[in-house]
Write a structure and sequence with these properties.
This protein has about 400 residues and is of the alpha/beta class. It has 2 domains: about 130 residues, Enolase-like, domain 1 (2-Layer Sandwich), CATH 3.30.390; about 250 residues, Enolase-like C-terminal domain (TIM Barrel, Alpha-Beta Barrel). It is built from 15 helices and 15 strands. The protein has an 8-stranded parallel beta barrel. The chain has a 3-stranded antiparallel β-sheet with strand order 1-2-3. Helix 4 packs antiparallel against helix 5 and helix 10 packs parallel to helix 12.
Length: about 400
């Protein structure tokens, strides 16, 4: 599909009408970046304009992301019209080819800048970002919680976990739990399960299912660690627990082994958190190498690129999910995109090393609960409706960082 026709399909029909009065009247004057220590070292981006309107965004964490933003991307967008989000995205990609702009940290850095641009545009036009991405399918987005079960082989421990889940103020109705494996220290990079590993996983996920009941979805996370035979063996072992999906069972790159696994697995196969742009997702979608795709939106190319990935998946009737380890800012931005995707299944919530949603929430100011009844809530405010909690963020900047540099 020609790029312009794909863009027209992705953006709201009202976007051009809303933006026309401001076209070529606003310029980007600066871009600033700071690393904030939270669940990870979150790279947060601010774009300033000569209209006095600023936008904030966030990219996936990683060494070098901030340097790419300031060293490569900032000069490319200064003086530009912030309404030209797609053109600026294309400019950043094409002008950073030497820095690896087809994947990795460069795409991640571009994603954060693109996300901040949408916040600027939403504020300039006085509408939530979701309204600019093709229209809003839902005003909240179903979330799943990534968290370990302390002792999954112990039924009593699983029942305690289920009670904790039931009492959680966010009301989660879906959880992601890692597989079990006894690592052979002599073979730390082995892709294989033992028979005991398979037996343990059968027991563990049966215990979790019996504890949480049938109204909670369970995801089995594999961290891209297995070969075809063992990924299929794990899928068969945990199938009695009726998982929502088996996540990242094999290494991220596409091969026909993904097609074979998807054809033979008794449960849905999902991957995507380590893929970049629609080009990374295309072979999995077109060749039926997954049942579901999962996009890390602040990593894979930003909001509009995620919409394009979702549109491609929709042609093949594949649901879309969102991987997410972001702060409240990046999470809400990602949820705006998810709310504009027709067949969206679930959005990850992961507070990582913070180990507390009370701490996670303190990074940002929002006009409503971030999550209610297991769903991420969207604001009606312009842009993303999120502001950083300056006092708290200042106290949690990464080493050597200053407030907006």
């Amino acid at each position: 599909m020609h790029r312009r026709s794909f863009l027209a399909a992705a953006l709201s029909p009202a976007f051009l009408a809303w933006s026309e009065p401001l076209k070529h009247k606003v310029k980007i004057t600066d871009m600033k970046v700071m690393l904030v220590r939270g669940a990870f070292d979150w790279p947060m981006v601010k774009i300033e304009t000569d209209a006095g309107v600023t936008g904030i965004g966030e990219s996936y964490w990683g060494h070098g992301v901030k340097d790419i933003m300031l060293g490569y991307l900032r000069p490319l967008i200064l003086g530009e019209d912030p309404l030209d989000v797609e053109r600026l995205y294309t400019k950043m990609v094409t002008r950073t080819g030497g820095a690896g702009s087809i994947a990795g940290a460069t795409v991640t850095a571009i994603s954060g800048v693109e996300i901040a641009l949408w916040d600027v545009v939403g504020k300039l036009l006085g509408v939530p970002v979701v309204k600019l991405l093709g229209g809003q399918y839902r005003d909240s987005v179903r979330a799943y919680w990534t968290t370990p079960v302390p002792r999954p082989l112990d039924p009593a421990s699983c029942r305690e976990f289920a009670q904790m889940l039931k009492e959680h103020r966010y009301g989660f109705k879906a959880v992601k739990v890692g597989y079990l494996r006894q690592m052979d220290r002599r073979e730390p990079f082995s892709r294989h399960f033992t028979n005991q590993d398979l037996q343990n996983n059968t027991a563990a996920f049966t215990n979790v299912r019996e504890a949480v009941g049938t109204d909670v979805d369970i995801v089995v996370h594999c961290h891209w660690e297995f070969d075809l035979a063992d990924a299929l063996a794990l899928a068969r072992a945990v199938a009695p627990a009726r998982p929502w999906w088996l996540e990242d069972p094999m290494p991220p790159d596409f091969s026909t082994s993904w097609v074979k696994l998807t054809e033979e697995s008794p449960i849905p196969i999902l991957t995507g958190e380590n893929l970049y742009t629609r080009h990374g997702f295309a072979p999995f979608i077109i060749n039926h190498g997954v049942h579901m795709v999962q996009i890390d939106i602040p990593k894979a190319g930003g909001l509009l690129e995620a919409r394009k990935i979702a549109d491609l998946a929709d042609i093949f009737y594949l649901p879309v999910c969102a991987h997410n380890v972001a702060s409240p800012l990046g999470t809400i931005a990602s949820a705006h995109c998810a709310a504009a995707i027709r067949d969206f299944a679930g959005h990850e919530m992961n507070c990582g090393r913070l180990n507390s949603w009370d701490l996670w929430e303190k990074y940002a100011i929002y006009d409503r609960p971030f999550v209610k009844d297991g769903r991420i809530q969207l604001s009606d405010a312009p842009g993303y409706g999120v502001a950083l909690n300056e006092d708290y963020v200042r106290a949690h900047l990464a080493d050597g960082e200053a407030w907006w540099g």
